[in-house]
Structures are given as C-alpha cells and as structure tokens.
Amino acid sequence: MRFLGCFFVIGFLCTVYPLFSQAPDTSLTNPSRSDALQNYRVGRDLESRNRLEEAQVYYNEAVRICNQELAANPSNMDSYTVLTWALQRQKKYAEVITWGERALRVNANDYRIVETMGEAYFYLDNFPQSLQFMQRYVNSLPQGERTAVAYFFIGEIYRLQGRFLHADIAYTAALRLDPGPALWWYRLGSVRESAGETAPAAEAYERAIRLNPGYREAAEGLARVRG
Known about the structure:
This protein is mostly helical. The protein has helices at about 5-15, 35-50, 50-70, 75-90, 95-105, 110-125, 125-140, 145-160, 165-175, 180-195, 200-210, 215-225.
C-alpha cells in the first residue's frame, strides 16, 4: 500500500527510445540507401553486439537519409524522429536538441521527440530541462512505449539531486510498468537505503539479485542494510 498512489504523486510533482525489434542478420550487408529507419535498426543491432565501428556506418547513413528527406520536406516528423534517434546513439546530444527543437516547432505534440530530448538533456547534465521533457512525456502518455524509461530517468534526476523520496516514487512507477531491469531495482534499493529505509531497500536489492545473481553492487547493498 505504501506506493499505491505513486502515479498520482508523480502527477502532483509534475506541476513543478520507442524500442524497435532488432533487425534480422540478413540485413547486415550494406547500408540501405533508401530507408533511414532500417539503417537505424541495423546500427542498434550491431551496437548491441559491441560492433561499434560498423554501427556508426549505419547511423551515419540514417542521418544522411533523414537530412535528405528533411531538405525535401521540412515537415516530415518521421525523419526528425529517426534523425534524433540516430544522433542520440552517436552521443551527439547537442545536435539532438537542435533538431528536436526544429521538430517541435512543426509538431509540438510528437512525443517521440519529447522523450528523446529528455534523454539528450539528461546526458548534457541539464537536469531541469530533462525533467521537464520527461514529465511532459509521462503525463501525456501514461502507458506509452517509453513511459517506464521516462520514469526511470526522472528517478535518476531526483537521485542525483539527493531527493530520495521523489526518486523512490519515480523508480517505483517505472518498475510497475516494467519490473524486468535489475538496474532499476538496484537504484530503488540505493535511494531507499540513502533515505534510511532499510527493510524496503533490502526488498529492492533482493529483487535485483534474483534478476541478476551476479550483481555485486546489489549484493553489497543488501549486506549493508542487513548488517
């Protein structure tokens, strides 16, 4: 019952990448010169295999195609979306913001762009702007494809700001939508531990260890709160 109202609390506080399936191996030949999204997907597949140099080839091609499409049609929101996703994977966060702002001038309610900008601002350490975009996303799409991720980023911001109760609420909201990531449970345990809530912290650390038995940091956290 402790967190039953977490979504409502987050809504009060707010007054203040959709994930694609991986491309099949048969597509890993040469960059497609016509499909930006396909190039982006292949790049992500290669990156997940730690084939980073090859991934960059596909991301670059996705960027090139999107730029070409936007030169022909500056209102193409799909092109803006794939472009910002590809730039995000390349860690070109300032460029993500530049293109995202252009996109939102075309359509202020494209929440694919909103969430991506929230991530870019986070990695630029601009937490107030990141928080604004992430809260905008979760308020507008409470069941969106990236809502769990957005709540996790909100939790990260509050954790880094030392606002542990707020972080607890946000991480809990993320885990209600997606209980699978061990990292998220570990983060929840860490902010509960920082807030002096040892029993709830132990529960979160235990969940992290069940998901990842080799999670050393979670095991150390569990030993601390039990000790």
